[in-house]
Amino acid sequence: MTANAAERIQHEGLRAKIMSAEQAAEFVQNGMTVAISGFTGAGYPKALPTAIAERAKAAHARGEAFAIGMITGASTAPECDGVLAAANCVSFRNPFQSDPGIRNSINAGNIAYQDMHLSHVEQQMRQGFYGDFDMAIIEASGITADGKIIPAMGIGHCNEALKAAKKVIIEVNAAQNAKLEGMHDVAYDIGVPPHRKPIPITGPFDRIGSPYLECDLNKIVAVVLTSSGDRNSKFADPDDNSKRIAAQIIDFFSHEVKAGRLPKNLLPLQSGVGNVANAVLAGLLDAPFDDLTGYTEVLQDGMLDLIIAGKMKSASATALSFSPDALQRFNDNIEFLRDKIILRPMEYTNNPEVIRRLGIIGMNAMIEADIYGNVNSTHVMGTKMMNGIGGSGDFTRNAFFSFFVSPSVAKDGAISCIVPMVSHHDHTEHDVMFIVTEQGMADLRGKSPRQRAKLIINNCAHPEYRDQLNDYFDRAEKAGGLHTPHLLLEALSWHQRFVETGDMRIK
User: For 83, which of 24, 266, 296, 450 is 20 to 30 Å away at the CA?
Assistant: First the structure.
């Protein structure tokens, strides 16, 4: 492992800085703000987090404080977020997470968490909102002879992290396919207002930068060798609900093509992370659309299989997040895929202007929607953070079509995913065009609030909750709410009933 990883470091000066994770962790001190690579289970450091966690536990045992502020691209994995949370050494975290330990600490009030649009992260780093970045810890698949960094399976905010940090540690991971080199596209200077220039991406596969990350080599204080895979969680096989949701969206695409509102190869597709979104992409394998394109944050199994099958000609993302089987398909076909997939910094994949201009079709998951089309995608019962908004807001606000998908009920029917009023707003009715559950689809375009309510209740709500929702809406209308009828004393009573009894249903 060590010899193979060392061979990935072609720069002689950086080879001299190879050390163990434990030695490199000595550079990380209490109170530091640290930029850590990683985006949805890809491209995160594998060894340093454990070594930092051990330093923290030793400090705590001595009665000393030890905690860091941690800014990532998105979620990482148990051997990064998980071990740091278990060691109680994270004081601040943003912008997106999915680790149970981090989530529990956030909801217990032990970690200050900033949920934010991913397109804003690098800009706010650049503008100094987080103060000075003491350290960047970045995973790479190699370093060239002239010191350029070959990214791994995810880029996220690495470009800005390397520029912002005072010191840098690089983990070179020999488990990453060496043929990733050349698959990335890193543009270096997006500019700041009022001198920002247009991003010259006019098609999903336009290349505008370099295949490498660059860094002032004097800032690199350590290089650590690893050979460990990414998170690579297995997706659940599509269930009946997921298949019904996928079928409705695909039927809708056919209708829009016939109506002349979509070209025959659709428009570039964005898909959020998760089993339902992945099922929609899997359903496109047998759909009557060819020459598809993708412009998304995370390229998952469904999009990979579309490319390998020849149904999708190219896709742009900031990270590759595969199940173990899909990773094997990726590695087996990497020569074919090298000119089909492009990985960029998230400041470009999630850029609102590019999303709007390319006409992206955005498909994202939700926790709940209300009868007027407002969507909550982050909070359980209005107070407990699940994962974060991620890039769903970047795409929803600016997409040509914006879909939110979910099964109509959760917890064996105890929770309705269609409610009178969402317990937390992430995406307002002004941005949400389509709500889809296994029950049906509500096309909200051109509809007033009261028209939307009827569509969402009758098309999307589970039959067990439909009468309850219609009763609420009818009584709200009679109470005098003429534009957006609500009974304010009852609007969140469903959530309160669940908190008190464990069931939203009236019994």
Answer: 296
